[in-house]
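Box 4.2: Ligand-aware structure prediction
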Amino acid sequence: MNRRQAIQVVALGLTSVVIAPASLQAAAEPPAKPGAAPAKPTGPTPVPTGPFSVPPLAYAYDALEPHIDTQTMQLHHDKHHQAYVNNLNKAVQGRAEVAGWSVDRLLRELSLVPEAIRGAVRNHAGGHHNHTLLWESLKAGGATLPSGDLAKAIDAAFGRFEACHEQMTMAALSVFGSGWAWLTSDASGKVQIETSPNQDSPLTAGHTPLLGIDVWEHAYYLKYQNRRSEYLEAFAKVVDWDVVSARYGKAR
Ligand code: MN3
């Protein structure tokens, strides 16, 4: 074959790929034999199901713009939170010891969860609970200050709300690696700031989480990259303190 012939062959080959009609491609597949097993379905792996599911957001993905961007909300809610739920469902599958347990109970009574799944439950029940609380705490144009008993408890513990806010911001900046900063209350109703690594929930320590700031990079990196303090400023603008105050009232 000389060079000219080779070019013609290549050109014909390309042309035939481009113009081959779909009907011809389909016809090239052998017909299914009668009685043959149906072809294995292709496509995405089915999502593991179980007792837990991601609650839908009460607002649009872009509702918190420009403070929390749309793409981050989509990925964070639909992919990250969903993954915690899928892994939690997988962990409790076939485990009669924890059948019917709520996510709260799994975290409060973590020491009673079978040891073989305790680590997975800690991470994924924690991830599920923390993120559910997070979505519910956010709103564009929500209340900017705590009210009622929570406002009193914050004044009692910090002197004034601004001091509470500053301490929570410092705590969120201090988290090394992935984790959360929290405003929590204890059994006596006293409020405090704490941090937790990974997806550990304050519930496991007997505390009630009132507001959590997610400082995993997935919560802010797309928009803020390494500027965690800018993200914290923006986050503070979309917290709905009415929800947080009601949460404290309910815990009392
Ligand atoms: Mn997160």
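In the box above, the bound molecule is manganese (III) ion. The radius of gyration is 26 Å.
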